[in-house]
Amino acid sequence: MSPQEFLSTAILLGVFVACAGCYGLLYTLARLRLSHVLMSMAYGAYLLQGVATVILLTQTSLAVVWKLLLVASFLIYAGIPPVTWRHLERTHQPVGHQS
Amino acid sequence: MYKSQQLALKYFAASLFVFGLLVVAGLLAAIYYVKFGFLLGVLDFSVAKMLHINALIISLLMGFLGAIYWFLPDELGQETVGIALAHLLFYVLCLAVGIVVVVYIFVQYGGSDQFAMWFINQGRKYVEAPRWASIGIFVVLCTLAYNIAATALRARKITGVIGVLIAAMVPLTLVYLFAFPAITNMSVDLYWWWWLVHMWVEATWEIIIGCILALSLMKLLDTPRRIVEIWLYLEVGLVLGTGILGLGHHYFWIGTPAYWLSIGGVFSALEPLPLLGMVVHAIYDAGKHQMKTTNKPAFYWLLAEAFGNFIGAGVWGFMMTLPQINLFSHGTQWTVSHGHFAFYGAYVTGILAVVYIAVQNWRQIGEVTGNAWKWAFAFLNLGMIGMVGGLLISGMAQSFYERALGGSTLEAFMAGQSNPWFMQGMYARLGFGIMFAVGFVILVYDLGRMVRKGRALPPRNVAA
User: Fold this and answer.
1) What is d(CA B8, CA B15) in angstroms, rounded to the nearest whole number?
2) What letter would DSSP give residue B185?
3) What are the residue ranges of helices labelled H in B289-371?
């Protein structure tokens, strides 16, 4: 890995997780406020994470195992906000109202 | 007010005092980078750094102890068993910390002999306390474990949170034993030393802060116990699932077998996943309560905990955790940036939330008002963000020029240290460090204002 590539790869890895954070933040806000605009922004953040993933896969010389890990992480990040939201809704229901 | 809670307040005060020492030592350490030869031969960089990072450990431990002693009697409905011993050990610990600090400042270091190890310092980063003081810390931790377990037994009650807390006491005390061995093989020494540092910071402490935050949420937002405990189990399980083997990222370059590259890389890369769940949870709670609470400072510090943990540990950690990147970034200011953000985000913010909860309850303040806490919150957070930003730029310059381009030679090291990008980052760190220090002064002023404003809870006459 060249010096220039090392630095840009590290920054992209940071962007990768930061986008996941923005996605989670916006998704939750969208569900709380029932806002389509915020939900679109949330998916936009996830899309940006996808772009970061594609760049990391195609433009960097990370080892294959790390690239596979990035793809797996990218897919798992997609599910975390909705799954967490569903569990939060379920656990916050009064006892006896759980389906 | 329970005696246990009186002790908690003393621990909080001591924790804040030691945190003040941490800030002063941190500012000194920042000055060395921009003013070469500063205090050289009087108080060298290594001493300021030692004070800074040891104060961090002691301050956080005191904060944890305070939080546990505060919540324990309320949670179990009775005075903490063995509280007199805990009180005595508090004074012993404070005296020991004072002596150790004086030795650090005035004696600084000794020879390579048993005397130095027992009475000056053990020479192992983060746990440099001389052996006699380390034994004292171990005794304090054992007493805490005894206090919790014996109180639960006396009360014939173990809540989910207390059960998790008791379980966490076992690794908390046991891994501290790794502070003691004096192993001459550096690889083997570092191997076990990381057990202590990593298993405390990224495993045991995560459980303890999880328990403390669970108890805080019940107090602050009246969140039902059922909900808090389900999420505590889930989040602690996920954090431990990724955090324990995340230990491997410390084993990349210390002479351990190559399989640690894979183990460390994979599990470290998974570490941000549960942190994202915590962010979602924090926003959900904030939204459902519409930010309505009688203690906004505590609430905001709890929110800062979720975000700080995700960004400091998650984003900053992930940037540099894969071995191909870490080869260049480890041990640079980049790591320092990550360390500052993660420690602050995961622990300091959580403890500050509990301090506000405790002071509000102690002084019987209906609603925490005023603007000082907002200034403290802003200065501390912006100061920290600025510091870690400055350190990140310096660390990137160091990794790029010294490691990647220069090949880690001594010449490259010197060139990296005087690189303009590196220096500008260091100036930024110092400037924002001063901002952080101002925030800390405002925080102490605000807490002092709350103490003066309210009236104290009457003491309870409950048998220990």
Assistant:
1) 10
2) S
3) 296-308, 316-319, 323-329, 333-343, 349-362
Q: In this structure, are residues B1 and B362 in contact, taking their beta carbons and an 8 Å threshold?
A: yes
**Which chain A residues are closer than 8 Å to B399 by Cβ?**
6-7
Sign of CA dihedral A43, A84, B244, B129: positive
Rounded CA separation A95/B313 (Å):
35
Nearest to B404 among A6, A61, A62 (CB): A6
Q: Which of B161, B17, B189 is nearest to B93 (CA)?
A: B17
Q: What does the radius of gyration of chain A's CA atoms come to, in whole angstroms?
A: 17
- For tokens 């005092």, what's the residue? B17
Residue of A nearest to B327 (CA): A6
pLDDT in tens, B78-137: 999 999 999 999 999 999 999 999 999 999 888 888 899 999 988 888 888 999 999 999
CA dihedral B226, B229, B235, B240 (to 10 degrees): -150
Is B182 in the A-facing interface, judged by CB distances under 8 Å?
Answer: no
CA angle B449, B452, B453 (to 5 degrees): 80
Contacts of B132 (CB under 8 A, 6+ apart): B96, B118, B119
pLDDT at B435 over 90: yes
Q: How many CA atoms lie within 13 A of B12 on its CB side?
A: 27
Name every chain B residue with its beta carbon within 8 A of the beta carbon of A73: 269-270, 273
| pTM (global) more than 0.90 | yes
B396 to chain A: closest CA residue: A7
Q: In chain A, which residue's Cα lies nearest the Cα of B285?
A: A88
Q: Which of B159, B150, B289 is nearest to B215 (CA)?
A: B159
Q: How far from chain centre, in Å, is Cα B126? A: 11
